[in-house]
Amino acid sequence: MSKFYFRCLRLTLLISVLVGCLVSVAVSDEQSDLGTVMIANVDGPISPATDDYLRMAIENAEKARARLLVVKLNTPGGLLTSMQSMVENILQSKVPVMVYVSPSGGGAISAGVFITLAGHLAVMAPGTTIGAAHPVTGSGQDVGGDMREKLENFAVSLIKAISEQRGRNVRWAEQAVRESVAITDREALDENVIDYIASDLSRALADAEGRTITVNGNPVTLKDLREAPQREIEMTLRQQVVAVLSDPNIAVLLGLGAMVGIAIELFHPGVILPGVVGVICLILSLTAAQVLPINFGGLALLLLGGAFFVVEMMVPSFGIWGAAGIICFVLGSIYFVDTDMIWGAEGFTVDRLMVGSIAAVAGMLVLAVVYLVVKTGKRKVEIGTAGLVGQLGSVRTEFEANAAGNFAKGKVHVFGELWNARISLENFALPKIGDTVRVQQVGEGMVLTVVPDEEA
């Protein structure tokens, strides 16, 4: 009893020591971040990945009670919903947020304007630009119809509210949306769009010291920023994957890979690898569909195009199904992304050159299939029924026995074409898919009588 008691006591002490160590490490890590300047890099289109990344950065900064969160921004625009969420997170942040448009040659375009104006401090590097916040599609074209007026009015109301809250130039902000005005860093400073210009991050932090800003309704004076330790916040692996999947071109290629891989597995059961790759591509493409603003009409056209290609392979139609599949693929790719949900970011659509290249390759494959079908048809006429006798073939479908159970029917592949075939069950076993058979005779209606190949 005493031994058991002492063992329990030692175990309890050991657990207490381990828990104490873990707590002390966690506390020391949190204290090490206390008073730091945290840096988040948003470089590229605004997407769900950048939205989640900024949310994580703000949460980390708040948890560590950082002195300042610097968002280094360089973007051509992006998704409307992601931009709204990022603006909301910045406005509600409990730590000061500086949006620093950099490097030189970069800019805060379209959706980037809203994010920049939302910062407690808005700073630009020399040689950068800001503006052009008028609603346009991912291909750079104006949004048409009633949707244009709705989006424009919404954008104006949002950017005016942000500018009023941060004390920035409301008139210019409205012009940036309605007239797509874009200005340089110097003009932005003169127009009271930004707070100041800084050549690098060190200068930006130095010029921020002593400034009093309002964070969640409370005045905060920034100090000791130059001496504060800096820590960059990296994207997580999941965010990096989502960032890749946010590219519509990747999403279309994954969908295409899924259709090809699964189709190969269906036509050649047991190969396994194409099927596995196809399923992985399918899962990733479905994930991309959740990330991107998908136009379901375009998605339906892509799926229909894939179905037409499969039909062309199964029932050769001299290219009719294949041509229909190519047309559906091209149209589906063009309308795959709902461009009304994109704020600028030219190129945030499926690349036309990529679509044309894939369509050209698919067209050549369809022509090759048509050529083989025509060639096989001529060859069948040349060899006649007598030429089929003795030829080897491969079982392609399950053979089904008749009611009497004396023979079974199925399809076999002989001379590059599918044939209706039958086999006697009185003398032979029911063949399986993939078995090799030999043509014994050609019956009425070009139905082949086959027997198992003894040498197979």
Give descriptors for this structure.
single chain, 456 residues, 2-enoyl-CoA Hydratase, Chain A, domain 1, OB fold (Dihydrolipoamide Acetyltransferase, E2P), 3 domains, six-stranded parallel β-sheet, 19 strands, 51% helix
The first-level CATH class name of the largest domain? Alpha Beta
Q: Assign a percent range to the helix content.
A: 40-55%
Number of domains: 3
Biggest sheet, open or closed, and with what strands and sense? 6 strands, parallel
What's the CATH architecture name of the largest domain? Answer: Alpha-Beta Complex
Helices, by number, come to 14
Name of the CATH homologous superfamily of the largest domain: 2-enoyl-CoA Hydratase, Chain A, domain 1
Proportion in β-strands: 15-25%
Number of strands: 19
What is the terminal-to-terminal distance? Answer: 74 Å
Structural class given helices, strands, pairing? Answer: alpha/beta
- Uncertain segments are 21-33
Q: What is the radius of gyration?
A: 33 Å
Shape: elongated
Structure, described:
- The protein is an alpha/beta fold and 456 residues long.
- The protein has three domains: 214 residues, Alpha-Beta Complex (2-enoyl-CoA Hydratase, Chain A, domain 1); 129 residues, no CATH class; 64 residues, OB fold (Dihydrolipoamide Acetyltransferase, E2P).
- The strands form five sheets. The protein has a six-stranded parallel beta sheet, sandwiched between helices.
- It is elongated.
- About 3% of the residues have low confidence.
